[in-house]
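Give me structure tokens for this 136-residue protein.
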Amino acid sequence: MFGKKLSAETRAKMSKSRTGKLGPEATGWKGGKLSLCRRVKLGIHRRYQWYKRVYERDGWKCVNCGSKEKLDAHHVRPISKLIRELTKGATFESDEAKIEWLLTRPEIRDDELKNGMTLCRNCHKMEHNNWGSHYG
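Here you go.
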């Protein structure tokens, strides 16, 4: 399907067929388990309010263009790379133990917010060569 032009009617049918599908019926279902990176990001959000603190520090606007629309908190050094570096050669009893250990690391907690900046969605997309691939 890549590169093919679909009619408006076909696009509408495809959209309707996906609407309301949750869990195993959803097109993006991957077994109901978030990736390690997503689980760590969720943990720093819940435990340390990292995203909110980044937004507040940057005045709730994009540091590149000044926009106040569709803001994202961007990790300068990707969490996935930090996780790989921190866990290289380490073993853990379970995924939960690994996540808990990671959430205590200063590089992940980022108390001084050195690894974060507020970007609007457009500027955030420009920061990533392959938008969406950094959620690994």
